[in-house]
Amino acid sequence: MSHLMNTYSRLPVAFSHGEGSWLTDTEGKRYLDALAGIAVSTLGHNHPALVTAWDNVHAQRRLLTEVFGVDRVACVYGWSMGAQQAYHWAAAFPGAVERIVAVCGSAKTAVHNQVFLRGLLAVLEAAPEYLGDASTRAGP
């Protein structure tokens, strides 16, 4: 018996990676991603300019070790997308993290959350200051 409500069912396919407009499943079959959001349709999958939660965790780790001289932390706390980073911290640097507190988050971004985030991205890209290359002509 599971204590989790099956609100969002999983897709019947498991993708292993993407390249440009194409996704490849775990069995090697390729799919044209016609359901992608704005960021993917503009940049494609696996674009080198994209920054992931994993990239952020590695940058945070470098900051702690190289700038502040901190090799081990007592706790990594994160809420929502920050919780995802807490999970990544534990997976990437288990010897450097004593514990994590992951609140209201998951180790992988769910499809429904990706749709929500793409909506936010669309609002940002609709701004007149947006230059179309992930930058703006005006500061925050």
Features:
about 140 residues, alpha+beta, 3-stranded antiparallel beta sheet, two-stranded parallel sheet, 4 helices
Strand content: 5-15%
In the predicted model, the low-confidence regions spanning at least 5 consecutive residues are none
Q: Could you say which structural class the secondary elements and strand pairing correspond to?
A: alpha+beta
Rounded mean pLDDT is 77
User: Helical content, roughly?
Assistant: 25-40%
Number of helices: 4
Main pleated sheet: 3 strands, antiparallel
The counted number of beta strands is 5
Name the overall outline. Answer: globular
Radius of gyration: 18 Å
Span between termini: 49 Å
Following the backbone from N to C, one meets helices and strands in this order, namely: EEEHHEHEH
Q: What would you say this structure looks like, in words?
A:
With 140 residues, the protein is α+β, with helices and mostly antiparallel strands. Helix content is 34%, strand content 14%. The protein has four helices and five strands, in the order βββααβαβα. The protein has helices at residues 38-43, 53-67, 81-92, 111-125, and strands at 15-19, 22-25, 30-32, 76-79, 100-103. The strands form two sheets. The protein has a three-stranded antiparallel beta sheet with strand order 1-2-3, with no helix packed on it. Strand 1 and strand 2 form a beta hairpin. Helix 2 (53-67) packs across helix 3. The longest helix is centred in the middle third of the chain and has 15 residues, at 53-67. It is globular, with a radius of gyration of 18 Å. The N and C termini lie far apart (49 Å). The model has no long low-confidence stretch (mean pLDDT 77).
